[in-house]
Amino acid sequence: MSALSTAGLMGMWHFGLPTPAVVGAIILLLLGLAYRTVCLLGVPISAEDSGNTLKLWNGLSKGHHIKEQVREKDGSAVVIEPLHDFDWKTVEPRQFRHFKRIYHITMGKEGPRIQYLKDATLLTMAAGLQSDTPSDLIAIDKDYLDRVTHRRHLIEKHGSGVHGCLPGGVAAVNELYTYLTSEYLPTRFPTIFQLSDDGTQFINNAAGKTWPTAPPEDPAAALRVLGETVEEDMFLLHEMPEGHKSYAFVCCFPSGFDPSTKVGKLLKDIHAPVPSYDKIGASMERFFARTEVGKSVKRLNWAIQTHGELYNSGSNHMTNEEALDTPQDADINIDESYYRVELQTLTRLPRTRALLFSFKTYLYPLRQIKEEGLGSELADAVDGLKAGNAPGTWVYKGAARWSERVCEYLRA
Ligand code: HEM
Matching InterPro entries, A to Z (predicted)? Predict the structure, then answer.
């Protein structure tokens, strides 16, 4: 509309029609165009809203009126709710207990409800994918400093084994870096992360580190900063004609796989060792393609491990061949055995349209599960790994090595 109407108004001015109204209309039009440009470029503007600073990713505004407009226009508004009085040192890690009697590999939003403890309250969550709020992309608790310090050491030790980027992933890495350092983290956790007055520096008060908000030229350097700033492991994917492909990653807490072998691969190849993945592969690709900006999802994944390591590139998983040669281990140290949970999220980045797959890892001692009275339920869930639609999961998760001792303990 704009070009035509502007020309019309200019014409009216030439022919001596009331000038103040025309000038006003032109100014309004120009302001409208400027606003639209800001939205399209995704330039962030912070907004004060009822005393709370709300930030909208890719199109921000001062009032509900414009916020709604942005939502209607491209559906890409993302509100980040600040946690103003957040004291990370006092926040307990979230407690998930989501094992089920029978394991089914599924993408579905429907399915059995699962339980988790939050602030000592037992809550439930759907077993498959569940919608998530963009504010919850990153979780921080009292383990934060230990975890990110450990991640820095893992990055130093394993280098390109835990982070990397293909040329096709550079723009997505830059977008993610800018979003987390300039917008998400300082807005969501203002007591931990701040921006310098000129906005060029990102300050992490908990870790005592300062980084530029402009992404480093080397995407690997950007991934290293992200890897030691948040606990979440991250993969960036782009949709290709043959399926979604991983282009960049920083993954310090892999559970039984080598993350560097997953970059440049399609989802179906990434999941090659996962039993019965073919049951969900096609619907997963379709679901990923439909995922919109601001409509994140989450899911939970669990495992048992008989050691306390967060970084595990090999031993948590097992192949059928390995299982044939591996007897049950009678010497398992229960005090070093854990119920391991990944809280996984999927988020669409608005500018590059890349998909961010991220997950935070939780380790709960088996003793704790038993003390909560959930021992036999977890033991049943271990047996149930071979009872559902993906029976190979029992071997894949390594139960052929540890299930006898672990289940005996859990049921005693
Ligand atoms: C949200 C949809 C997804 C579903 C339903 C899903 C499902 C699964 C399942 C059931 C497993 C077996 C894990 C276990 O039981 O220990 C698995 C493993 C894995 N998934 Fe996914 N996944 C999803 C998305 C992704 C994405 C986007 C990536 C991106 C890289 C990914 C990377 C992996 C990797 C690396 C493994 C380990 C594979 C191995 O053992 O080598 N997943 N996934």
Answer: HODM_asu-like
Residues with a CB atom less than 6 Å from ligand 1: 105, 107, 235, 237, 246, 256-257, 262, 270-271, 273-274, 280, 284, 299, 301, 303, 317, 346, 357, 397
Q: What is the DSSP string of 342-389?
A: EEEEEEE-TTT-PEEEEEEEEEEEHHHHHHTT-HHHHHHHHHGGGTSS
* pLDDT tens, residue by residue, 74-97: 445 689 999 999 999 999 999 999
- pLDDT, one tens digit per residue, over 109-156 is 544 455 555 554 444 454 578 889 999 999 999 999 999 999 999 999
To the nearest whole percent, how much of the chain has pLDDT over 90?
71
Cα R_g (the chain), whole angstroms: 25
Which tokens is 286 given? Answer: 């379709």
Alpha-helical (H) ranges within 231-374 are 267-270, 281-290, 320-325, 366-371
Gap between the Cα atoms of 404 and 111, Å rounded: 29
Point out which residues pair with 234 in neighbouring strands. Answer: 250, 358
Q: Residue 282 has what DSSP assignment?
A: H
By C-alpha distance, which of 393, 396, 269, 284 is closest to 344?
Answer: 284
Among 225, 232, 251, 256, CA closest to 344: 232
Q: How far is the CA of 237 from the centre of ligand 1 (A)?
A: 13
Cα 250 to averaged position of ligand 1 atoms, centre (Å): 15
Place of tokens 């165009």: 33
**Single pTM value for the model:** 0.82
Strand order through the sheet with 121-126: 95-97, 113-118, 121-126
Other C-beta atoms lying within 10 Å of the C-beta of residue 79? 17
Minimum CA distance residue for ligand 1 atom 11: 274
Q: Which two tokens stand for residue 219?
A: 């995407």
End-to-end CA distance of the chain: 75
Atom 27 of ligand 1, nearest CA residue: 357
